[in-house]
Amino acid sequence: MSVVEAALNGPSQASQTGLDPLGTAIALQPFDRQAGSASALLGFLQMGSAALGSTLASAMPFSPSVSLAAVMTAASVGALAAFAPVYRDRPPRETQSSAILEARVSNDA
Question: What's residue 33's pLDDT?
């Protein structure tokens, strides 16, 4: 195995063994009754993104490794741009923890 193959395979193995199932469980947590539909939609989005990314990478006139790096960088920037409004609008940390504490105290009573 070359160094490039090991570098590309390492994150993939980490994703398949630990990060991907955890991320899926967190994403599906709010959907109790619609877990099957939400899981299907999540799988569709993952497979659709992979199909789009591989199509873009193969259409680029660069070497495969440069094309893959360009597509992965663009996808990362796009994900950060999509997440930025959610992160910006979240409540401050003190408010968030005190609201959770109040909810726990009211549920215990």
Answer: 84
Angle at 40 (CA atoms; ends 20, 10), nearest 5 degrees = 20
Note the pTM of the prediction, 2 decimals. Answer: 0.56
User: Which pLDDT value is given to residue 12?
Assistant: 53
Q: What angle do CA 50, 51, 56 make, to 5 degrees?
A: 95
> d(Cα 94, Cα 54) in Å, to the nearest integer?
43
Angstrom distance (rounded) from CA 104 to CA 109: 9
- Residue 63, sorted as left (phi over 0), alpha (psi -120 to 50) or beta, turns out to be beta
* Tokens describing residue 1: 């195995």
What's the distance, CA 21 to chain centroid? 11
Residue ranges in the chain modelled with pLDDT below 50: 1
